[in-house]
Write a structure and sequence with these properties.
Strand order of the largest sheet: 1-2-3
Order of helices and strands: EEEHHHHHHHHHEEEHHHHH
Largest sheet: 3 strands, antiparallel
Number of helices: 14
CATH class of the largest domain: Mainly Alpha
Shape: elongated
Structural class: mainly alpha
CATH topology of the largest domain: hpI Integrase, Chain A
Radius of gyration: 29 Å
Number of domains: 3
CATH architecture of the largest domain: Orthogonal Bundle
Strand content: 5-15%
CATH superfamily of the largest domain: Intergrase catalytic core
């Protein structure tokens, strides 16, 4: 078996790559998806040329050559399986199709697409979005060229990590994509699609601690007392921030999907979108004051974040979140805060204020809806550096 190239007589056309299989004087061909520029694949040669062409970079040609070499390796494994099948009268070489390649070794792109469809059926919208973002990123790195799981090795993953760093992505962002790829790779291993070559052992799949800063209780009060009645958009953003703080740092997506029926007998009961955990929050005077402002909501939702039930609920939530986070920057200026205020600050501030009031860690963990106190401890540890910095400034005063 060998790769063959179908040359084009026109200089502006691409040349097709295919695989030729010969078994007992019977010839079969498998058309592949790679196209090379004119002149890169000479008709009398079974190697892709190394010349740099005007419409395809040298790196892309090298990538195609590498893919062809690696695909020939697993094509030989397919041939061995076909040999066994032919012995039993099940299939001839001419019966081989390109689909046989994907049956034996499903492509990475198609595997992830199948995972996205599966998660969509389960209603896991956020997982669909993160998997799609990962697939888009990896396809960009691969320049659209698919591959099998057998072709994923540590060298490829290191190259992908370097490419992301070259585009200015942070370590946490590249790690995010790596972890999702690793999850899909492990699933492929479990399904027997490849053996585990541990391709992620030399790339970063952890989480760097990011500097988080909470607000003081006095700053929260200052935000709440701002006179914003002449600026409805700012007032709404402020009220949603305060509502989140009052509900123990409820995430914005959970706020958006709260339903009127969730408020009953003085308690608000809901399930976290992130974990599925059910939480119950006592309804307070502060929450009621905010709700009174926005009672004219014709939908089933408690807060006017989603105002139309027409299938665009997810998009409405995302748009509102972006608008509110943008307006919170203006509110921070009005309240004379030194931080780039966002919705996340409400959650972190609630935890920090609770800690400073010497509320037990177990209670804070329960309030945040964390699965364990260890998670809450990690959540709070990031505050310590700011306390140390403040102590250091006092020590260095007058130096």
């Amino acid at each position: 078996m060998k790769p063959k190239f179908r040359p084009s007589t026109a200089s502006d056309k691409t040349e097709s790559v295919m695989y030729q299989l010969i078994h007992e004087q019977i010839t079969g061909k498998i058309r592949h998806g790679y196209d090379c520029p004119h002149g890169a694949c000479p008709a009398d040669h079974d190697q892709i040329g190394t010349a740099v062409c005007h419409n395809l970079h040298h790196e892309q040609l090298a990538s195609i050559r590498l893919n062809v070499e690696q695909e020939l390796q697993w094509l030989k494994r397919l041939a061995n399986e076909l040999d066994k099948a032919v012995e039993h009268g099940q299939k001839s070489v001419n019966g081989t199709k390109k689909s046989d390649l994907h049956t034996t070794d499903p492509s990475v792109f198609n595997f992830i697409r199948a995972q996205i469809r599966h998660k969509d059926r389960l209603g896991k919208v956020r997982s669909c979005e993160t998997y799609q973002a990962t697939l888009n990123s990896f396809m960009r790195f691969r320049k659209g060229m698919d591959l099998t799981f057998d072709m994923i090795d540590s060298e490829l993953m290191e190259s992908y990590e370097a490419e992301m760093a070259g585009r200015g992505l942070s370590r946490n962002t590249s790690s995010f994509y790596m972890r999702i790829l690793r999850t899909n790779y492990r699933q492929a291993v479990e399904k027997g699609l490849t053996r585990d070559r541990r391709p992620f052992r030399h790339v970063y799949c952890g989480m760097d601690k990011t500097a988080k800063r909470s607000l003081t209780f006095e700053e929260i009060k200052r935000i709440r007392k701002l006179e914003l009645s002449r600026h409805p958009a700012l007032e709404f953003a402020r009220d949603m921030f305060i509502f989140s703080f009052c509900t123990r740092g409820m995430s914005f997506i959970d706020m958006a999907y709260l339903k009127k029926k969730d408020l009953k007998n003085g308690y608000l009961t809901y399930r976290r979108k992130k974990t599925g955990q059910q939480l119950t929050v006592e309804w307070t005077m502060q929450m009621q004051e905010i709700l009174e402002k926005y009672r004219h909501n014709p939908t089933q939702y408690l807060l006017p974040i989603i105002t139309r039930e027409d299938g665009s609920e997810r998009r409405q939530y995302q748009n509102q979140m972006m608008k509110i986070n943008r307006r919170l920057k203006d509110i921070a200026a009005l309240a004379e805060l030194s931080v780039p205020l966002s919705l996340y600050y409400s959650r972190h501030s609630w935890a920090t204020i609770a800690r400073k009031k010497e509320i037990p860690l177990s209670i804070i963990s329960e309030g945040l809806g964390h699965d364990s106190e260890a998670t809450t401890q990690i959540y709070l540890d990031s505050i310590k550096s700011f306390e140390v910095d403040r102590a250091n400034r006092k020590i260095l005063e007058g130096l």
